[in-house]
Amino acid sequence: MRNKSILKGLGVVLAITLLNAACTVPRLVTKTENKAVPASYSGSQDTTNSARTKWRDYFTDPNLAALIDSALYNNQELNITLQEIQISNNEILARKGEYLPFVTVGGGSGAEKVSRYTSQGAADAVTDIKPGKETPDILPNTYVGAFASWEVDIWHKLRNAKKAAVLNYMASMEGRNFQVTNLVAEIANSYYELLALDNQLDIIRRNLDILNNALSIIRQEKEAAKVTELAVRRFEAEVYKTQNLQYDIQQRIVETENRINFLVGRFPQHVQRNAQSFADLVPAKISAGTPAQLLENRPDIRQAERQLEAAKIDVSVARANFYPSLHLSASVGLMAFNPIYLFNTPESLIASLIGDLVGPVVNKNAITAMYRNANAKQIQAVYNYERTVLNAYIEVVNQVSNMNNLEKSYSTKNNQVQALTQSTNISLKLFTSARADYMEVLLTQRDVLESRMELIETRMRQMNALVNTYRALGGGWN
């Protein structure tokens, strides 16, 4: 008796020692995210934020609004993302099911021959079913019943895994919102580029008319022996150069239209627009608000934040693998060697209840590696979050500065165009009165064309900056 007590005591001590060894978790270096941002952009304390304006109110051109609305339904990449969100939602259901009991119902039938030289076979040989009859060598078996298994979530490992799946689902939703923001901005930028190209093409065609008229004058001057054949050839070359520029603009129009068609999810076709409205476009004043509002408005920042929260929970899930886990299994049913005895209860009734408490003791390399990987991914998520916030802040600063400088640039270029337009008429009058040579007329025409093209380019860049600032602030997804 004393020896049995000693053995029992040793068994208890050994079990406690093994459980303690199983609960030993390696210490890892952790990192906490820095959520601090500058207090303002360039000292401004205005909290008005244009990102809160819905895109339908921000883009008032009905043709542009129709394109955006169509893209939100038909864009293939966006629809692919929606299916990825559905996959994330299904992952939540799968994780939720893991911490609930698994119950199955089934039955079966078969036959078994047991060797007489086994303990079961020897026992069957001396067991009488009825007086004078022993257990047959080949024994059939039939059963029906319910079977259940359940891992008791002691350390909240399974519940935490579900929480991580929920956060990843929320992150995928924010990723979809950020994709919508970029899609809206890309369509708007392409649309304004298309309007600019239409206006540039119109300027080139009008300039061709002016050059052809000038060429006619030069030919008349040559016939009057006032200029040489060189002047005629130089003007003809300028006409050909401008025609080539026209073909280049026409090709860019086709490509820009088809870029929009691709985003809208349709085959190449004419993009409905009003090119004359470009001349009336004036970039609206935009309010940047405060940098802290980026954390609320930018979907990519919220996505990174959700991913970071999920990564932290994944570390807890990986840590729980070091602790003992409790598994319960149970079954209840009916079993008989002959189907006619199957419902003879309680003789045919079977039932079981088993509990297992197990934990890793030796060779924990696999779960240690998983734990270290989860911790490394959490640190990655911290850096990704901080990088996303920093990138968002820099984007806003760059675009606000870009809008201010482009406004000044447009004013300067507009003055340049007016001055060159006046010099065009002056140079032609001077040439016809023999007070200027043909090169002055040619260079003036070239300069005015380039300046008008640059003016339209600057206006397009202003509208693109307006769109990009709206996107940088986090607008467009709501």
Automatic annotation (TrEMBL):
InterPro entries: MdtP/NodT-like, OMP_efflux. Pfam families: OEP. It is found in: Cell membrane. Residues 1-21 form the signal peptide. It is a lipid-anchor. The keyword Transmembrane applies. The keyword Signal applies. Its main location: membrane. Residues 194-238, 403-466 form a coiled coil. Keywords: Coiled coil, Lipoprotein, Membrane, Palmitate, Signal, Transmembrane, Transmembrane beta strand. NCBIfam families: outer_NodT. Belongs to the outer membrane factor (OMF) (TC 1.B.17) family. This is TolC family protein.
